[in-house]
Amino acid sequence: MKILAANEHQLPESGVVELPNDADPLALDLSGITRIDLNFPKFTDGRAFSQARLLRQRRKFTGEIRATGDVLIDQLVQMARCGFDVAVLREGVDASDAQRQFERFHAFYQGDVSHPLPHFREAA
């Protein structure tokens, strides 16, 4: 997962959609879309996790999915497992601290967007 500081985030250009939290990602017309920005208005609002997973698994969206808003370090691993490619950290969060989260967790028992089979079903 690519991690961006808040000041590195570019506003949407052509081919980029900012999808509101209450929008249905299954109803979105994906033609011509290269990036979808999903917003976390506050860290307790996790609807963007579900939107990302639906876009990846049901809609087979292969473009960039970017997490914006109140993105905290402890959410990054779960974001990557749900299908996010890029996370824009909220103001004041250190990107090097954020990157260390991925070094803390090496494997997962459950399947996810990148590795759909659970650990016990994978070939040894």
From TrEMBL:
InterPro entries: UCP030820. Pfam families: DUF934. This is DUF934 domain-containing protein. It comes from Diaphorobacter ruginosibacter.
